[in-house]
Structure formats: C-alpha cells, structure tokens
Amino acid sequence: MTTPPLVELDPTSGLTHRETPRAAGLLRRFARHRLALVGLALLVGLVLFCYLGPLLYVTDQVHTDLGAARLAPGSAGHPLGTDDLGYDTLGRLMVAGQVSLLIGVVAGLIATALGALWGAVAGYVGGWLDLVLMRVVDAGVAIPALFLLLVAATLVTPNTWVLALVIGGVSWLVPARLMRAETVTLRERDYVRALRVVGGGRARAVFRHILPNAIGTVVVAATFQIADAILLVAYVSFLGLGLQPPATDWGGMLSKGITYTYDSSWWLILPPGIAIVLVVCAFNFVGDGLRDAFEVRGRDR
Amino acid sequence: MSATSDNEPVLRVDGLSVDFRTSSGPVTAVSGVSFAVREREIVAVVGESGSGKSTTAMAVLQLLAPNAHVSGGIQLLGRDVLALRGEQLRRVRGKDAAMIFQEPMTALNPLHTIGAQLVEAMRNHATPQERRSRDFRAEAVRLLHRVGIPEPERRLRQYPHQLSGGQRQRVVIAVALSCRPRLIIADEPTTALDVTVQAGILDLLRDIRDTDGTAVLLITHNMGVVADIADRVLVMRHGELVEQAGTERLFAAPSHDYTRALLAAVPKLGDRDRATDSGVDGDTKASEVDTGNASSEPDTGAAPAALELTDVVVSYATGRGTGLRALDRVSLRLAPGEMLGLVGESGSGKSTLGQCALGLITPDAGEVRVFGTPLRRARGRAGRALRGQLGVVFQDPASSLDPRMTVAQCVAEPLLVHRVRDRAERARRVAELLDAVELGSAVHHRFPHELSGGQRQRVSLARALVLRPKLLVADEPTSALDVSVQATVLDVLTRLHRELGFACLFISHDLAVVDAVCDRVAVMRAGRIIEDGPRRDILTNAGQEYTRQLVMSSPVPDPVRQRRRRGDRAAGTTTGAAR
Q1: N or C: which end of chain B has fewer CB within 10 A?
Q2: d(Cα B240, Cα A36) in Å, to the nearest integer?
Q3: How many Cβ atoms from other residues are within 10 Å of residue A86's Cβ?
Q4: Which region ranges are annotated with the description Disordered (chain B) (predicted)?
Q5: What is d(CA A81, CA B272) in angstroms, rounded to the nearest whole number?
Q6: B275–A199 C-beta distance less than 8 A
Q7: What residues of chain B lie within 8 A of the CB of A298, using their CB?
C-alpha cells in the first residue's frame, strides 16, 4: 500500500482513557469506598487488640480462680468482669480472638486456594473432567457444611489447626463455582487462544493467564470466605465441639456464657458476640470494597 | 409537508462545544463546531474514533450523559434545542428528529413484537384524540412496506430475533420514520452489517430523502459509505471540524492535510494495480511482488502445502438437534509463502476455517494438514514443534494481549513455550521482533492498556512471528482499527511477509483490504468456498454471481466511480436489496 505516513493517535491524548498504574488505581478506588475503609480500620483494630493487647494487659488465662468467679464488670482489676471459672473476660476476649482470627484466616485461605484451583482446572480443561469435578461440588453443596464439620469434630480432637483444615475443607465449594464461571470466559480470550495455537500447555494457561486475571474474583472470594469461616468456628464452638479448655475462641466464650444468661451475667455474652459481629462485618466490608475496586477497572470516571 | 425556504436549514449548529466533567478534570470532546443541514440533504460526519462525531450527533437531541456540558447553539427547525426541557424535549425527539443507532439488535426490545414497537412509537407522539381514531396497525404495515420488508402483515407479529440484521435495521428505520421526522440522525447505521445488506440500507436512506425530503445527518467512519450517499461531508478530528465541503469536491481536492491523509489511508478496491504503475514505492514493490508470485506458483508435489484442508466439516449443535454446518466439506490449499485472502460475509464460516487451520477447532470430518502433517495427530514433542510453525493474529485488540503482562512478556511467551531458555537470547528476539513491527524499545515494559489499538495489534503480530512461523493466520486483524492505523498495520504485515516469506491466511470481510495485501482470494458463502483464484480475476472478473454481488456492494471511496457502480448494480440484479 502506498500511503503517506500518518501519525497514530497518541493513546494519552484526547478522549482515549488511560488507566492509572494498577496498584495505585486499585488503592484509590478502594479508598473511595467509605465502608471498606471502616472495615479495614476495624480489622486493624481487632488484630492489634488480640495480639498486642495481652502484652499490655496481662492476665492469667490458664489457671482457674474460683474465688473470683463471675465478678461483675468494674470489679477491681477486671474492667469486663470474670467468667464462671474466674478468667478475666477482657483478657479472655483477646486470647479467644487470636484463635478465631487465625482459624478464620487460615480456613478462608485454604478454601479459596483449593476452590480457585479446582474451578480453574474444571473450567479450563472442560469436557468430562469438568463434569465430574463440578458434580462433586454440587454434591458437596447439597450437604450442609455444619453437618460435615460436626461429623469431623466427633472423629478427631479439635485443635486450632485441625479446625482450620476442616473448615477450609468444607467451604471451598462456593469459590470453586465462582472460579469455574470466571475461567470459562477467560479461556476464550484471544491471548489464551494464541497460547494454545503455539502449543502452550494447560498448566501455563491456568497459572500464567487464568489465575492472575481472575485475581479480583479470588481476592474478593477470600475475604468473604474468611468471614464465613469465623462464623463457622463460632457455630462449632458454640455447640461445644470446638477447642478444649483452657483454650477457647469467641464462639466458645458465647457457649459458656449462655448458661448464665438468666443470672443477668451479660458481660459473658455481649463482648464475644459483638466481637464476632464486628469481625464478620469488617471482612465483608473490605470484600465489598475490593470487589468494587477490581470491577470498575478501566472506567472509573 | 411544508417547504422550508432555502435559507432556513432544518438543523443549524453554531459553535457547539461539549466538555465531559470527569474525576480527572474536564475533557473536551467537541469544540467550536458549526454546520447546517438543509432539507433534502444528506450530510456525513466522518472522523476516526475519538474525533467527537458521535458526541456531536448525540448533542443535537440532548442524549449525552449527565456529566456533559454543552455550549453553543443548536437550532432544530428554528427552535433552540438546548433551551428545551422535559416534555418539550421529548416531543422534539422522534417527531422533529429521529435517531438510528449502529446495533439494530439492541435498538429493538426483544420482548415485544415488531408491530407493538412501531405502534408504540406512533402512539407516543399522537394526540389523545388521534389515539382513539387512528388505525396504527395499518400505518405500521405501510411503514414496513415503505422500508422494503416483504410480507409486512406477517412481520408485524414477529419478534426482533426472528429477523435478519438487515431487516432489523429496516425496522429501526421504520420506527424512526413513524412520526415523519424532518431530520434523521443515523449513527453508523450500517457498520454492523454486511456489505450487500449495507448497500440496501443506503439505498433506502437515499430513497427516503428523495421522496420525503427528509434531511439526514449520517455519522460514519467509512469513506466508501460517504462517497456512496453523502451530498456534503464534515471531517472531524480531535473534536474539531477540520474541513467541510461537497462530497465530490472533498474527494477530488481535499484542502486539509488531515483529510488528504485520511483519504489516502483508505484502501480502495482495484487501486493496487494503479498504484504499482504510478511508481510510488513501485520499484521495490514490483520486484517484490514478482518474487512473491514466484513462490506462490502452485509447486504441487515438491514441498508440502503450508496448509491443506480436505473435505473439512464442522457443525455446531443447535437447540433442536439439527447441526448447523459452519463448514461444509471445505477443501483449500495454501502454498508456502503464499498470501491468501479469505473473504465472506458474517456467518459464512471464514473464522471457523481459520480456527480449524490453527487446531483450535477439531473438525467433525475431513483432515487439516500443516506442512504435510495432520494437525489432529500432532501430539507431544512433535506436536509442539509443528505448532511452532503457526502464528495467529486475532481481531480484537482489547483481548489479544494479557492485561497483566508487559509487552515484552507477551511477545516472549511463545519462546518460553518452546523452551528457549537463554534469557539474553529471548530478550534479543523480542527486541528484534518489536523493532520489526516498528515499536521502539520504550514500549517493552508498558502494559497493553497503555497502548493504542494499532500498537496492540502490532504487538500481537510480533508475538505471532517471534518463533519464525511458516504459517500465519490473521483473522480480521485490522477490522477494529481506524483507517489510518489500519494502513500502518497492513504496511507492517505486508513488509514482514515479504521479508520472512511465511504463508498467510488473511481473513477479512473487507474486499479492499484483501485486494491491497493478498495474491490469491477465496470467497466463502454459507460454509463453502464458492470461488478461489488469483486476486485480479476474482475481484474484477468473478465467475460467481455472489462474488460479483459482493464486489459491487462494497462501496468505493470515490463518489464518481461509486455513482457509476451504483448504476451498474441497479441495472443488474436486485436480489440482494431486501436481505
């Protein structure tokens, strides 16, 4: 073709939209989400409370002290009172929080990682493997997670890591479905097809293209999974199948406190209850914020 | 129909400016544009993406997003549109000026019948008295008949999905005509349509103008369409009006540099033969073309074909079990080093054929051989080696590159797949290829979203060629690009084809582009290759009626030639008119 050279439109000029560098843009959009910032602040606060708190506010959470059982809040040295075995409630809230947060985060991450990989393989490979993998998920969803958890709790003595593993093991189903749906659309993107044309393998497609491009979905799923996992730990402990004393978590504290409801020992129930509500809300807010930050990619005007 | 006096245009736009308020400050989309559209006049607004042509059209009916700030004057039938609000504005829209959009499927509501939508449009602008007395249904039948839809009574009861794309656009035009507007604003009305269908729609618009005296403001990027239908042309660039002139004068003697460059960038059917004669870059071209022809001589027997399809059948399962045959016993042979253009309208199976050649689709029957090896049996190490001979460039620049990889990583990926372990060697080849597609070292560490569409397509080309493949499949590689950018990409492609000597299957719906780059042309229709031969024979002297129709229908960006062609087409068959 014989054409005079024509200057191509400079991508930065005119109306052509230009995205700000990835991380900065993401942060900016996240920061615009008020509730997400509140959630993030809450999370930071809770983590500091649970992990730094015991260093500043030293209490004995191993030995019982029946002489100081069920003291009301405000008693000398016990701002939130004590429980039926004489453990300081405020101190116990911190120690229990460590366990709840740890189990929640580990279980949530296990569930997301397992689910994402499962869904990506099913979606990318397709065919009969997809069919088999997704029917397994369907079957899993049909059985209540709590039921599986209770069965597991009766088989093994629960400690922190066992609980985290078990909860992670029963809650990967939803992320798997999400990831499969995402993969099915990503698989037909031209850059993935171009890779197939030159003989690129499945592992490369999944790990180099599909998973990185689904990172938004994965991260958002992870925050919701963590919130769910914290709730699940609370359920299980509440039903008395959680950790063995003297270790405890927020659900366990609730479970014990409920016995004394009619003696108006509100300080045994409200603090762990509020803590659970706060942490679950915080993770959900952060998840919402992240989802919006990832979704508006390229059209934040 | 009251006649407007000559000095009172239907639409007058004075110093129109549009700014969009965005989070990163105001962005000017249109600045200081003035023009007028008179009765019985078709005015085309042309420009590349981002030139502000659509924004201008939308501003006329105040259809812009709320963050748009419009200033200047817009007089429609002597009334100031910018002063209108609410109910007054609603009355102007549709009644005084109607709009036709690009995508007829989304312009119609899929849940309502054609008839219901036509009647609704008329009722909306009828007085309460008229609503009782008028026979809207009979008028709808007349309208459908007017826009050339056969069996209007039956069509009224049908839903949009039961109509073809061309018929849908005719229905949209019928809706637009329902209130007898004095001005029709058509925003890329034929861009989503095949050329044969496009020709029919343009004829219809011309006919409406001729019989009803309706003024038409036509927004388009297609110079062929402009040459075919417009009386006057406005050329826009970066939100400014750079030139306005009568169509014939603009094409014959464009006064602005940009217009000249734009016109020169448009590939013209049949222009290649003239260009080589005229000597511009002709010395290199002529000799290279010769060698190209030499290598494309059918050297059957000696070397195996770069690509050979034998009786390939691909069918897609449809809802009712009867498979739709996307490819129906297709056989095709591509010699090493040959550049074959595969043309056809949408749904003809050309992309499916390309995907078969790449092994992305496994045919239901028949065989695909690449350099003599059946693609189906190529597995493992041998399979990877064979796939190293293949390269591909897809149509959509937005999805052809992984948004999370830098340009250099994208281009290097095939090397990694083919175990080129030496980092320095990889970097060298990436740099070499990016250099070959005329992208400097500055882009290496950029991400795809920082590049323009044309740059991205050139990165795709670099990625496709980094393994030095012997067969390249280019599936509409420039269809999503502006003409000036298309010209650059095509130049790069033809130069690399000359230098590297790969065989190329060039899939396109644009005959002019195929004419500009290919040696041989194959025409597809309804899953079959109906004609296959040297470029010049197919495009100037086709054996098949369908091919001739296709060539006739694709508009040439030259008003004088186009008028002659239109005459020829009218004198010939009229079978394609209502499709």
Answers
A1: N
A2: 43
A3: 17
A4: 273-303, 554-579
A5: 92
A6: no
A7: 449
Tell me whether residue B280 is in a domain. yes
| pTM (two decimals) | 0.78
Give the CATH number for residue A250: 1.10.3720.10
Do A1 and B467 make contact, defined as CB atoms within 8 angstroms? no
Count of domains observed in chain A: 1
B123: domain range? 112-180
Q: Are residues B83 and B194 in the same domain?
A: yes
Angle (CA) A256-A260-A261 rounded to 5° is 110
A279–chain B nearest CA distance, Å: 32
Cβ–Cβ < 8 Å for A116, A220: no
Structure tokens at B456: 């991205």
Largest alpha-carbon pair distance within chain A?
98
* Rounded Cα distance, A11 and B482, in Å: 13
Domain count, chain B: 3
The length of chain B in residues reads 579
Q: Are A263 and A78 in contact (CB under 8 A)?
A: no
- Report yes or no: B203 and B235 within 8 Å, Cβ to Cβ: no
Where would I find the H helices in B253-373?
257-265, 271-278, 282-296, 350-358
Q: Which of A8, A16, A190 lies closest to B488 in CB terms?
A: A8
CA distance B324 to chain A (A): 21
In this structure, is residue A24 part of a structural domain? no
Taking 70 as the pLDDT cut, the residues of chain A under it are 1-23, 295-301
Interface test with A, best of B235, B381, B443, B449 (most A CBs within 10 A): B449
Does the residue B498 lie in any domain? yes
Round to the nearest angstrom and report the end-to-end CA distance of chain B: 31
Which two three-digit tokens encode residue A87?
A: 């453990």
Domain membership of residue B568 (yes or no) is: no
Residues 229-258 of B with CB under 8 A from A: 238-239
Residues sharing a CB contact under 8 Å with residue B368, sequence separation 6 or more, in sequence order: B307, B308, B309, B310, B312, B356, B357, B359, B374, B375, B376
Q: What is the DSSP string of B497-533?
A: HHHH--EEEEEES-HHHHHHH-SEEEEEETTEEEEEE
C-alpha pair distances (Å), B300 with each of B99, B327, B521, B531: 56, 25, 18, 20
| A56 in B contact zone (CB under 8 Å) | no
Contact across the interface for B23 and A209, Cβ inside 8 Å: no
Q: What pLDDT digit, counting tens, does each position of B236-278 carry?
A: 998 899 999 999 999 988 999 999 988 888 888 877 766 554 4
Q: For testing the chain B interface, which of A8, A12, A189, A202 should be mutated: the one with the most B CBs within 10 Å?
A: A8
d(CA B577, CA B579): 6
Domain boundary among B158, B180, B202: B180
Range of the domain at A135: 41-55+85-295
Instruction: For residue range B157-199, list pLDDT tens digits in order.
Output: 888 888 888 888 889 999 988 888 999 999 988 888 888 888 8
Q: For residue B482, give both structure tokens.
A: 């502006």
Q: Tell me if chain B has a CB within 8 Å of the CB of A11.
A: yes
Please compute Rg for chain A using Cα positions: 25
Residue A145 lies in a domain: yes
Mean pLDDT of B223-244: 91
Q: Any chain B CB within 8 A of the CB of A127?
A: no
CA distance B214 to B146: 14
Among B149, B180, B211, identify where a domain stops: B180
